[in-house]
Amino acid sequence: LSLDTVRDFLTREEDAIVFSLIERARYPANAPAYGPAAAGDLGRLHGASFAEMFVRESEAVQAKAGRYQSLQEIPFFPFRVPFTLAPPYNFTAELHAAAASVNVNGAIWSTYFSQLLPLLAKNGDDGNYAATVASDLVCLQALSRRINYGRYVAEVKFIGDQQNYTTLIRKKDKDALMKLLTSEAQEDVVKRRVQKKAMVFGQNVTLDGPVETGNSNSSQTSFKVDPSLVYKLYDKWVIPLTKQVEVEYLLHRLD
Ligand SMILES: C=C(O[C@@H]1C=C(C(=O)O)C=C[C@H]1O)C(=O)O
Protein backbone atom coordinates (compact mmCIF):
# COMPACT_ATOMS: atom_id res chain seq x y z
CA LEU A 1 0.00 0.00 0.00
CA SER A 2 1.45 3.36 -1.06
CA LEU A 3 -0.07 6.72 -1.99
CA ASP A 4 0.50 5.83 -5.66
CA THR A 5 -1.23 2.43 -5.55
CA VAL A 6 -4.08 3.91 -3.53
CA ARG A 7 -4.53 6.72 -6.07
CA ASP A 8 -4.38 4.16 -8.90
CA PHE A 9 -7.24 2.30 -7.26
CA LEU A 10 -9.31 5.48 -7.02
CA THR A 11 -8.55 6.30 -10.66
CA ARG A 12 -9.76 2.89 -11.79
CA GLU A 13 -12.89 3.26 -9.65
CA GLU A 14 -13.71 6.41 -11.63
CA ASP A 15 -14.27 4.22 -14.67
CA ALA A 16 -16.68 2.03 -12.74
CA ILE A 17 -18.55 5.05 -11.41
CA VAL A 18 -18.85 6.83 -14.76
CA PHE A 19 -20.01 3.67 -16.54
CA SER A 20 -22.55 2.93 -13.81
CA LEU A 21 -23.98 6.44 -14.10
CA ILE A 22 -24.21 6.07 -17.88
CA GLU A 23 -26.19 2.86 -17.39
CA ARG A 24 -28.57 4.36 -14.85
CA ALA A 25 -29.15 7.38 -17.10
CA ARG A 26 -30.66 5.06 -19.73
CA TYR A 27 -33.78 4.71 -17.65
CA PRO A 28 -36.23 7.43 -16.65
CA ALA A 29 -36.86 8.32 -13.02
CA ASN A 30 -39.30 5.41 -12.54
CA ALA A 31 -40.53 6.87 -9.27
CA PRO A 32 -42.79 3.94 -8.22
CA ALA A 33 -39.65 1.83 -7.66
CA TYR A 34 -38.55 4.19 -4.88
CA GLY A 35 -41.66 5.61 -3.34
CA PRO A 36 -43.67 4.62 -0.37
CA ALA A 37 -46.51 2.62 -1.95
CA ALA A 38 -47.20 5.35 -4.51
CA ALA A 39 -48.28 2.78 -7.10
CA GLY A 40 -50.34 0.41 -5.05
CA ASP A 41 -48.42 -2.52 -3.72
CA LEU A 42 -45.45 -2.44 -6.02
CA GLY A 43 -42.51 -4.05 -4.34
CA ARG A 44 -43.60 -3.17 -0.84
CA LEU A 45 -42.01 -5.73 1.40
CA HIS A 46 -41.68 -5.17 5.13
CA GLY A 47 -42.25 -1.46 4.55
CA ALA A 48 -39.32 -1.07 2.18
CA SER A 49 -39.35 0.40 -1.31
CA PHE A 50 -38.80 -1.88 -4.27
CA ALA A 51 -35.29 -0.43 -4.68
CA GLU A 52 -34.41 -1.12 -1.06
CA MET A 53 -35.76 -4.65 -1.23
CA PHE A 54 -33.77 -5.29 -4.39
CA VAL A 55 -30.52 -4.05 -2.84
CA ARG A 56 -31.06 -6.09 0.34
CA GLU A 57 -31.84 -9.30 -1.47
CA SER A 58 -28.95 -8.80 -3.91
CA GLU A 59 -26.54 -8.14 -1.08
CA ALA A 60 -27.70 -11.28 0.71
CA VAL A 61 -26.82 -13.36 -2.37
CA GLN A 62 -23.50 -11.59 -2.83
CA ALA A 63 -22.68 -12.02 0.85
CA LYS A 64 -23.23 -15.76 0.54
CA ALA A 65 -20.92 -15.69 -2.46
CA GLY A 66 -18.28 -14.05 -0.28
CA ARG A 67 -18.25 -10.55 -1.66
CA TYR A 68 -17.88 -8.93 1.74
CA GLN A 69 -15.04 -11.18 2.77
CA SER A 70 -12.97 -8.44 1.16
CA LEU A 71 -12.76 -5.35 3.35
CA GLN A 72 -12.90 -3.25 0.19
CA GLU A 73 -16.60 -4.01 -0.05
CA ILE A 74 -19.08 -2.92 2.60
CA PRO A 75 -22.77 -3.86 2.32
CA PHE A 76 -25.56 -1.34 2.89
CA PHE A 77 -27.52 -3.90 4.92
CA PRO A 78 -24.94 -5.75 7.01
CA PHE A 79 -27.54 -7.46 9.22
CA ARG A 80 -28.56 -9.56 6.25
CA VAL A 81 -25.15 -11.11 5.70
CA PRO A 82 -24.59 -13.71 8.39
CA PHE A 83 -22.65 -16.37 6.53
CA THR A 84 -20.78 -17.25 3.40
CA LEU A 85 -20.78 -20.15 0.96
CA ALA A 86 -17.54 -19.01 -0.59
CA PRO A 87 -14.25 -20.83 -0.26
CA PRO A 88 -12.24 -18.96 2.36
CA TYR A 89 -9.56 -16.59 1.20
CA ASN A 90 -7.08 -14.92 3.45
CA PHE A 91 -7.28 -11.27 2.43
CA THR A 92 -4.28 -9.26 3.60
CA ALA A 93 -5.09 -7.15 6.62
CA GLU A 94 -4.06 -3.72 5.38
CA LEU A 95 -6.19 -1.66 7.75
CA HIS A 96 -6.03 -1.04 11.47
CA ALA A 97 -8.59 -3.43 12.97
CA ALA A 98 -10.39 -0.92 15.20
CA ALA A 99 -10.95 1.46 12.29
CA ALA A 100 -11.55 -1.06 9.51
CA SER A 101 -15.34 -0.98 9.78
CA VAL A 102 -15.63 2.81 9.50
CA ASN A 103 -17.95 3.66 6.61
CA VAL A 104 -20.44 6.26 5.41
CA ASN A 105 -22.88 3.99 3.58
CA GLY A 106 -25.83 5.68 5.31
CA ALA A 107 -24.85 9.05 3.85
CA ILE A 108 -24.12 7.49 0.45
CA TRP A 109 -27.56 5.88 0.41
CA SER A 110 -29.50 9.03 1.22
CA THR A 111 -27.40 11.26 -1.03
CA TYR A 112 -27.78 8.88 -3.94
CA PHE A 113 -31.55 8.65 -3.78
CA SER A 114 -32.44 12.16 -2.69
CA GLN A 115 -29.85 14.23 -4.55
CA LEU A 116 -28.02 12.41 -7.31
CA LEU A 117 -30.83 10.38 -8.83
CA PRO A 118 -33.12 13.38 -9.48
CA LEU A 119 -30.27 15.02 -11.42
CA LEU A 120 -29.31 11.86 -13.29
CA ALA A 121 -32.61 10.40 -14.46
CA LYS A 122 -34.99 12.12 -16.84
CA ASN A 123 -38.64 12.46 -15.83
CA GLY A 124 -40.81 9.54 -16.79
CA ASP A 125 -41.90 6.02 -16.07
CA ASP A 126 -41.27 3.15 -18.48
CA GLY A 127 -42.06 0.36 -16.05
CA ASN A 128 -38.59 -1.18 -16.25
CA TYR A 129 -38.26 -1.20 -12.49
CA ALA A 130 -36.12 -4.29 -12.05
CA ALA A 131 -33.55 -3.21 -14.64
CA THR A 132 -33.58 0.30 -13.19
CA VAL A 133 -32.92 -0.71 -9.60
CA ALA A 134 -30.33 -3.23 -10.77
CA SER A 135 -28.46 -0.29 -12.27
CA ASP A 136 -28.92 1.65 -9.01
CA LEU A 137 -27.26 -1.21 -7.17
CA VAL A 138 -24.22 -1.02 -9.44
CA CYS A 139 -23.96 2.75 -8.89
CA LEU A 140 -24.30 2.39 -5.13
CA GLN A 141 -21.68 -0.33 -4.94
CA ALA A 142 -19.19 1.61 -7.07
CA LEU A 143 -19.70 4.79 -5.04
CA SER A 144 -19.47 2.91 -1.75
CA ARG A 145 -16.27 1.15 -2.76
CA ARG A 146 -14.66 4.40 -3.84
CA ILE A 147 -15.75 6.51 -0.92
CA ASN A 148 -15.08 3.94 1.79
CA TYR A 149 -11.67 3.37 0.26
CA GLY A 150 -10.83 6.55 2.15
CA ARG A 151 -9.85 4.10 4.92
CA TYR A 152 -6.94 2.89 2.82
CA VAL A 153 -5.98 6.42 1.81
CA ALA A 154 -5.95 7.44 5.47
CA GLU A 155 -3.86 4.43 6.46
CA VAL A 156 -1.22 5.33 3.87
CA LYS A 157 -1.18 8.96 4.96
CA PHE A 158 -0.95 7.99 8.61
CA ILE A 159 2.00 5.66 8.00
CA GLY A 160 3.71 8.38 5.98
CA ASP A 161 3.47 11.04 8.70
CA GLN A 162 2.88 9.22 11.98
CA GLN A 163 4.08 11.96 14.27
CA ASN A 164 1.81 14.72 13.05
CA TYR A 165 -1.21 12.47 12.68
CA THR A 166 -0.72 10.94 16.14
CA THR A 167 -0.67 14.37 17.77
CA LEU A 168 -3.88 15.44 16.05
CA ILE A 169 -5.62 12.11 16.68
CA ARG A 170 -4.81 12.35 20.41
CA LYS A 171 -6.30 15.85 20.43
CA LYS A 172 -9.31 14.58 18.42
CA ASP A 173 -8.80 17.66 16.24
CA LYS A 174 -11.00 16.85 13.24
CA ASP A 175 -10.45 20.15 11.47
CA ALA A 176 -6.68 19.91 11.64
CA LEU A 177 -6.81 16.27 10.50
CA MET A 178 -8.98 17.29 7.56
CA LYS A 179 -6.50 19.98 6.64
CA LEU A 180 -3.50 17.68 6.92
CA LEU A 181 -4.96 14.97 4.71
CA THR A 182 -6.30 17.34 2.06
CA SER A 183 -4.51 17.87 -1.24
CA GLU A 184 -6.40 20.47 -3.23
CA ALA A 185 -4.16 19.99 -6.26
CA GLN A 186 -4.96 16.27 -6.29
CA GLU A 187 -8.70 16.94 -5.90
CA ASP A 188 -8.60 19.28 -8.86
CA VAL A 189 -6.92 16.61 -11.02
CA VAL A 190 -9.53 14.03 -9.99
CA LYS A 191 -12.51 16.28 -10.74
CA ARG A 192 -11.24 17.34 -14.14
CA ARG A 193 -10.36 13.75 -15.04
CA VAL A 194 -13.80 12.36 -14.20
CA GLN A 195 -15.43 15.10 -16.23
CA LYS A 196 -13.23 14.11 -19.16
CA LYS A 197 -14.03 10.43 -18.66
CA ALA A 198 -17.73 11.26 -18.87
CA MET A 199 -17.01 12.92 -22.24
CA VAL A 200 -14.92 10.04 -23.56
CA PHE A 201 -17.03 7.14 -22.27
CA GLY A 202 -20.37 8.80 -22.95
CA GLN A 203 -20.07 9.40 -26.69
CA ASN A 204 -21.98 7.63 -29.39
CA VAL A 205 -19.49 5.59 -31.37
CA THR A 206 -20.27 5.09 -35.06
CA LEU A 207 -18.24 3.66 -37.91
CA ASP A 208 -18.53 6.71 -40.19
CA GLY A 209 -16.46 9.73 -39.50
CA PRO A 210 -13.86 10.38 -36.86
CA VAL A 211 -14.46 9.75 -33.18
CA GLU A 212 -16.44 12.71 -31.94
CA THR A 213 -14.32 14.96 -29.82
CA GLY A 214 -17.09 17.00 -28.33
CA ASN A 215 -15.59 20.25 -29.62
CA SER A 216 -16.86 20.37 -33.21
CA ASN A 217 -18.84 23.55 -33.78
CA SER A 218 -21.28 22.09 -36.28
CA SER A 219 -22.96 19.49 -34.14
CA GLN A 220 -23.45 19.82 -30.43
CA THR A 221 -22.26 16.48 -29.08
CA SER A 222 -24.62 15.06 -26.55
CA PHE A 223 -23.17 12.82 -23.90
CA LYS A 224 -24.95 9.93 -22.24
CA VAL A 225 -24.41 11.53 -18.89
CA ASP A 226 -23.75 15.23 -18.42
CA PRO A 227 -19.97 15.63 -17.80
CA SER A 228 -20.57 18.65 -15.57
CA LEU A 229 -22.89 16.54 -13.42
CA VAL A 230 -20.09 14.02 -12.89
CA TYR A 231 -17.74 16.87 -11.95
CA LYS A 232 -20.32 18.13 -9.50
CA LEU A 233 -20.90 14.66 -8.05
CA TYR A 234 -17.22 14.42 -7.19
CA ASP A 235 -16.93 18.00 -6.01
CA LYS A 236 -19.97 18.04 -3.76
CA TRP A 237 -20.26 14.44 -2.56
CA VAL A 238 -17.66 11.86 -3.55
CA ILE A 239 -14.55 13.73 -2.43
CA PRO A 240 -16.06 15.28 0.73
CA LEU A 241 -17.45 11.89 1.82
CA THR A 242 -14.12 10.18 1.10
CA LYS A 243 -12.41 12.73 3.30
CA GLN A 244 -15.01 12.21 6.01
CA VAL A 245 -14.16 8.50 5.93
CA GLU A 246 -10.47 9.39 6.16
CA VAL A 247 -11.02 11.55 9.26
CA GLU A 248 -13.23 8.96 10.98
CA TYR A 249 -10.74 6.20 10.24
CA LEU A 250 -7.92 8.29 11.69
CA LEU A 251 -9.87 9.08 14.85
CA HIS A 252 -9.93 5.32 15.55
CA ARG A 253 -6.44 4.64 14.27
CA LEU A 254 -4.90 4.52 17.75
CA ASP A 255 -7.74 2.59 19.47
C1 LIG B 1 -7.86 10.57 -1.74
C2 LIG B 1 -6.96 11.46 -1.33
O1 LIG B 1 -7.18 12.30 -0.21
C3 LIG B 1 -7.97 13.46 -0.31
C4 LIG B 1 -9.21 13.14 -1.05
C5 LIG B 1 -9.21 13.16 -2.42
C6 LIG B 1 -10.28 12.46 -3.18
O2 LIG B 1 -11.24 12.00 -2.58
O3 LIG B 1 -10.15 12.32 -4.42
C7 LIG B 1 -8.18 13.82 -3.10
C8 LIG B 1 -7.18 14.47 -2.43
C9 LIG B 1 -7.18 14.59 -0.96
O4 LIG B 1 -7.69 15.84 -0.61
C10 LIG B 1 -5.67 11.61 -2.00
O5 LIG B 1 -4.81 12.33 -1.49
O6 LIG B 1 -5.49 10.99 -3.06
TrEMBL record:
Its EC number is 5.4.99.5. Keywords: Amino-acid biosynthesis, Aromatic amino acid biosynthesis, Isomerase, Signal. One of its GO terms (cellular component) is cytoplasm. Coiled coil: none annotated. It is an enzyme of class 5 (isomerase). The keyword ATP-binding does not apply. Residues 134-246 form the Chorismate mutase domain. It holds the Pfam family CM_2. NCBIfam families: CM_pl-yst. This is Chorismate mutase. The lineage of its organism: Eukaryota, Viridiplantae, Streptophyta, Embryophyta, Tracheophyta.
